[in-house]
Amino acid sequence: MSSFLYSLGRRAFAARKTVLVLWLLVLAVAGGAAGLLNKGLDNTVTIPGTEAQQALDRLSVTFPQTSGASAQIVVVTPGGVREPEVRREVERAVDELKSMPQASQIVSPYQENIGGTISRDGQAGIVAIQLDGATTAIDQSTKDRIADIAHRLQERLPDGSRASYGGPLFAQNFPGLSVVEALGLVIAVVVLMITLGSFLAAGMPLVNALLGVGASMALIFVATALGPITATTPLLALMLGLAVGIDYALFIVSRHQQELADGATAREAAARAVATAGSAVIFAGLTVMIALVGLGVAGIPFLTTMGVAAAVAVAIAVLVSITLVPALLGFAGERLRPRGRAKRSRARSPLGTRFFSGWVRAVTRAPVVTVLAVVAVLGLAAVPAAGLRLALPDAGSLPEQDPARATYDLISEHFPQGFNGPLIVTANIVTSTDPLGLMNDLKGEIERLPGVADVPLATPNPTADTGIVQVIPEGAPDSQQTKQLVDEIRSLRGHFHDTYGIDISVTGFTAVGIDVSDKLGSALLPFGVVVVGLSLVLLTMVFRSVAVPIKATLGYLLSIGASLGVVTLVFQDGWLAGLFNVDHTGPIISFMPIVLMGVLFGLAMDYEVFLVSRMREEYVHTRDARGAVTRGFVSSARVVTAAAVIMFAVFVAFVPEGDANIKPIALGLAVGVFVDAFIVRMTLVPAVLALLGDRAWWMPRRLDRALPSFDVEGENLRDELELANWPRPGGDEAIACEGLRLTDPSSGLPVYHDVGFAVPRGAAHVVRDADESAVTAVLLTLSGRLKPDGGKAKVLGRALPARAAAVRSRVAYVDVGDGGAEPVRRALREDPAVLVLDRTDRVSDPAERRRIRELLTGTRATVLAGTTGLAEVRDVLPATAPVTTCDLRADATAQPRSLSGAIH
Predict the structure, then answer these.
(1) CB atoms within 10 A of CB 685
(2) pLDDT at 462 > cutoff 90
(3) Cis peptide leading into 64, omega within 30 of 0?
């Protein structure tokens, strides 16, 4: 990976104009496609398979008058709505509503026999508006017509009266952006200026993020042509795209400046920055994307769409960072190189600033105290999350100045709160001989249930095969009392079946919301298991440690708990609600916890990788566990701090004026980033690593060999660059190795050690030892199929084990002892540059040995053969190739001389 990114960085630096033009072209094409294909956003939330949704789908066929979108006009007048002059104007408005093309049924408040509603004090009445079609199918002209009729009705009513429109049709509020959100970018620019030291360098991450966000937003609106996308989706993608786009570019530009300060040319510095920091960026981006796509575990379509869209935004941010940033660095050239003062500052303070040095010394001086304090504080912050309640937002969560919110409040003031979210009980009554009597019986039983305020309507459909009962709960739509009523009615399904021979279902907007919340709540545990399990595996691959992944995962859980606790305090309990401009307190939007878990997981792994990977690098080089924590922390803390401050600023900027759906997510992410970066990663992590010492980096050898390695800090690239002129400048050996060693993890005994030789291209070389397994291990190592424990090796100019994959693609390994000449023939068809022949002495048939030699004679491949010495190996090697031999025996003394001769 790092080698590929190194080449990519060099090419992007050189072709900077082309790269910039290509990305601008992508942005222009995506923007044009969005303008042509955009179908608009849809805030309708449905979950196929839930009882409420299935019942609603059935009603659209059997009782379409009750399944479409609905709205309300509430009329309030001091003299009472039954006054003749008031009634006349209300009835006139009802007639105007009935004339709308999409009107299905309009119920006057005076038609109390079919669901018309007047408050007990007679001062308020509700005009129920049932429309033909789902919310997304209702034209804007119909909405405008309802609003106009309500406004003109209020003008005709007596002084002091009100006529306000609202209901589910108007509960969808499509958010926009304000100046407040831009403050996050202003803070980001200031932090970038301080961190990178120049306006030119600070502008690169901002350009990077804006271009990536522009492309991802355009693609999201293009995707509206394929299916419904909620208004929260682009906002979440915008937040994440800005945050990670700035941070990922920051890591690369900062590493570029470090390489320039160490004396590299601008092009080489950009290539190394992309190879090292870019590897970490790709890993961090992958973890975020996997977590976001993992939202599909819940099996909820709108949530899956949200996760995929946000993952696309992160993927674009990664792609832009590893291609556009080196191009922008190419435009900057030498202007980003630190001046003399900066270099002298680096020489005076090799361990970084005093602040971070003092910080890490303070938290590691008494690591046990630090760990206990952090766990106690974050545990206390997480306590409110135990009372977290979930619900879908309705008109009550809209801003107070919104007409739908005003209608919601008026209804709550003059009617039982349940009038803002009535329940619909549906029944299949096709077998009934007295449908009217049956519906009256159902109405009577439901009226007697606790928590029921009113049952204004119970009627069969015109074909008498489906009946509906409208139930008004006493509690608000998002209250626990209403949820208990829904559960109570559903629990009577068996009773109604036995008594009346019917099957019932509970539906309506409120019941749909309850089902959505329940399903999202039940998805938290499996999603959490997936996320935690994924973090353990990925971090084990990166850090080659058992303790570090466990510590990182536990730290992530602390961050999640504290974040959910703060969100509960603010949005549910009302603490500091005025500060964050929270208009309505109550249950949290249903999908907030699972989205927060997914996004924060990826961001937490970002900080873990960027911070701890430097500590691991120091430990690998020094084997000083405590010193590695200090030096690694100081070298990376400045950039991690800047990245966390930028993310916090971007997220928190969406809280004061943000959409009601996005506000709790934004606050949760802001708190989560702050807690995870500054309390968990920069306080708890150093303390735990200092406490564990060398044990923090222990890993069973079997597990180490079984798991693939992910080089996030470009260690393999550094090894490759160090071996660029080895074994000699300009050398073109097919194979070169020195000091190779491998130990058997089960016994601790050496398999081979101190192996070294060089083989020119087109030559043949024999590896010989009485232990056949040792010979096989050497051959597998040099063919890129087995990782050695130490030493140097290059095959076809590619360093091992860093470029093992590239070596395997050009080196064929054949066990001739198992197949004879035929596998050799098949391998040569692929035209390998090196052909490895193992267990040659097991080919006992002279004719088969001659056929192998004939196949090899004339080939251009370098041949590496293995033998135990029990048979002469030269008779299977090419007749024309020069042959050399290396003995692996412990008493062999020719190995170093063979290598030194090849080098010099």
Answers:
(1) 25
(2) no
(3) no
